[in-house]
Design a protein that fits this description.
Elements: H1 2-24, E1 33-34, E2 43-44, E3 58-64, H2 69-85, E4 90-96, H3 106-115, E5 122-123, H4 129-133, E6 141-145, E7 150-156, H5 161-173
Parallel strand pairs: 3-4
Antiparallel strand pairs: 1-7, 2-5, 3-6, 6-7
């Protein structure tokens, strides 16, 4: 009886790893899935942007919230990519989906955006409509969308900055012709 418990307890870490792999697997969109529209009645730094109007451009959709430290940690990279590649056709849309009630206050989001010099579009997603459309579950998450409007890359959390930038570069270099 004691040995059975030891074996069971010894297999829990493996079970945990397998569970995590299968848990995360379905959350990301597969390649060549059309990017959902970003729906918001409130946009900071931009008029409402439509995916259809962004055809021919590479779009990065970032789900973030200003109180999230992980979101703050990737912010310099997103700003750098915007600054470096906007002239080449990269459009950044930073969807603000609040984790806590104080983050729902639009004036606080506006203040954060202004104080932190965020120059790109920030739609407010207090109802989590966009969050659900993208099947998002985590802050921060980046979706990189090609010139045809299909999601080509998803990054959850911090890290993989070089891989993300290489994806942006590759998609920008692709032909803008689409059907």
């Amino acid at each position: 009886m004691g040995k059975g418990r030891i074996i069971l307890l010894g297999s829990l870490p493996l079970y945990g790893i397998i569970s995590v792999v299968f848990y995360f697997a379905p959350i990301s969109f597969a390649s060549n899935v059309p990017a959902p529209e970003i729906i918001s009645s409130t946009w900071i730094n931009s008029k409402p942007l439509k995916m259809e109007d962004l055809r021919g451009k590479v779009v990065m959709v970032e789900f973030w919230t200003f109180g999230c430290w992980n979101c703050r940690n990737i912010e310099p990279y997103v700003k750098k990519w915007h600054q470096k590649y906007a002239k080449d056709g990269l459009v950044v849309i930073a969807v603000h989906s609040p984790e806590f009630s104080y983050e729902k206050e639009v004036e606080k989001v506006k203040t954060y955006v202004q104080e932190n010099n965020i120059p790109y579009a920030v739609p407010i997603d207090n109802e989590f409509r966009n969050w659900r459309q993208y099947r998002n579950r985590y802050w921060p998450t980046l979706y990189v969308i090609d010139k045809k409007g299909t999601i080509q890359y998803t990054r959850i959390g911090e890290g993989a900055y070089e891989q993300t930038e290489q994806t942006i570069q590759r998609l920008l270099a692709e032909s803008a012709q689409f059907q």
